[in-house]
Amino acid sequence: MAPKDTAIRIALVGGGTGGHIFPALAVAHELRRLRPSVQPWLAIGRRRAEAEWAADADLIPVRLFAAPMPYGFRPLALLKAGVAALAGTMQAWLWWTGWRPAVVLTFGGYVSVPAALAARRKRIPYIFHASDCLPDRAARLLGRHAAMITVNYAESAQHFEGVRVEVVGQPIRPWLLGADRRQAARNLALDPDRLTILVIGGSQGARSINYAAINAARAILESSEAQILHLCGNLDYDDLSQICVTEQLPIERYRLLAFLREMEWALALADVAVTRAGANGLAELAAAGVPSLIVPYPHAGAHQRHNAEPIAKAGAGIIVADEELDGDRLAAEVLGLVTDEQRRREMAAAAKRWARPEAAAKVAGLLLEIAEENS
To answer: Is the pTM of this model over 0.90?
Structure first.
């Protein structure tokens, strides 16, 4: 076993979406807390947004060639994904020839594929973290040869037979929890004493949430004293901003932002959330104790529906199907929570019981365990 003061090199790979990158940042933070001498190495994909998502890290990420594998038979897309995977595998192989990590941690998605293939060729053990309740194709492929699988949902462990599986939860960035509500409200020009509805309608596939929220806004604001913080993403921001002006929505109670880097402010203010069912976002809301109205993305194998169901079963969330969502339905569901303080309290308590805020520290500890065995 390596001495405790020996620097250990650990590669973290997450890309494609923020849900793959943010957990990597959380684990990097915990690695340095547990072992200050550790040398983490972060790899992400090559999209511009990924570099922005990784900006919270105090290490410079490397950009890995990768492309998503298409669903169905699409020859050109298949060729592009194959060439990118080969290029990314060679890229990672060359990096790790000079900077040999003791262990690699991948967070799923197509960016993880070349990294895991290179690790296998270099005989470097890798851990695969499965964020979704229903593992996708990359998870099932990479899990076969992993030294260990860590899972967010206990329900997903059954998909990884013959491999060591640890149920840890979803690693979340610790700095997102515990922000001061009043300071957060001042930073966002909102009222800390008003009940706050957080709407998370990012640019990737949440247009239905964005337009349902803007159409529900007047009914919510006129029927309650609540305020709304709407993070809509860049895709719909200009159109929604014009609707706000046309509908004369009060800016002091309806705050529309394309993006908020300081998500700790939003979580500190949120009393109710309207959200998709990405594993990372649900884990952050649960850890903050926020009751959620969950609208799963209806495509991509319906994996978001599987993510939402355990939270709804735990009593921490309400699921509304995307095809059933409009302004009237959203207003009714939100006002049902806004006007029922006891129900909100029960859902908030259920969310915290379901959450595993220690997940990043657990994953970091497992990485160090394997790294020491191979150092």
So the answer is: yes
